[in-house]
Automatic annotation (TrEMBL):
<keyword id="KW-0732">Signal</keyword>
<keyword id="KW-0813">Transport</keyword>
<comment type="similarity">
    <text>Belongs to the bacterial solute-binding protein 1 family.</text>
</comment>
<dbReference type="GO" id="GO:1901982">
    <property type="term" value="F:maltose binding"/>
</dbReference>
<dbReference type="GO" id="GO:0042956">
    <property type="term" value="P:maltodextrin transmembrane transport"/>
</dbReference>
<dbReference type="GO" id="GO:0055052">
    <property type="term" value="C:ATP-binding cassette (ABC) transporter complex, substrate-binding subunit-containing"/>
</dbReference>
<feature type="signal peptide">
    <location>
        <begin position="1"/>
        <end position="21"/>
    </location>
</feature>
<dbReference type="InterPro" id="IPR006059">
    <property type="entry name" value="SBP"/>
</dbReference>
<protein>
    <submittedName>
        <fullName>Extracellular solute-binding protein</fullName>
    </submittedName>
</protein>
<dbReference type="Pfam" id="PF01547">
    <property type="entry name" value="SBP_bac_1"/>
</dbReference>
<dbReference type="GO" id="GO:0015768">
    <property type="term" value="P:maltose transport"/>
</dbReference>
Amino acid sequence: MKKVLLAILSMVLLLSLAACGGGSDNSKNKDGKEEIVMWGSWSGDQIKQLEKQIDSYNKSQDKYKVKYVMQENVEEKLLTGIAGGELPDIIMWDRYQTALYAPKGVLEPLDKLVKEDNVKMDDFYEESVKEMTYSDKLYGLPLLNDNRILFYNKKLLQEAGVKPPTTW
């Protein structure tokens, strides 16, 4: 659990400094902390867990205050934010989306921050890190891993003359 919390807090700190190119004004709150806005689509019990981790992070240091803002449709909100120039400091999304938005120039590479903060990239599952990398630049750190698998009916593909890929 400590390793997971450390990974999440590292992600929050790193991404708070760079994730979406600094669209928000990062104003100081009443405690003098810089407010970091994080968007995501987590809700219900997921938010309870996330808020515990954010609260722990906020109490652990006196420079930043992370504020989670749940979005019903985070992609739609992001597109609106890109058009209007109002982006969050951090965005939580499925890893594959990195390849959709990094080419648009709306994400900030994290390579320099990862190096400066001595983030141990070996602590992250390599394939998940690859999903958050575009053109040899790292744009995010994986929060969770999941299994992705593809089932297909060999007979139907053969009948259709389709040869399935050997890698995926």
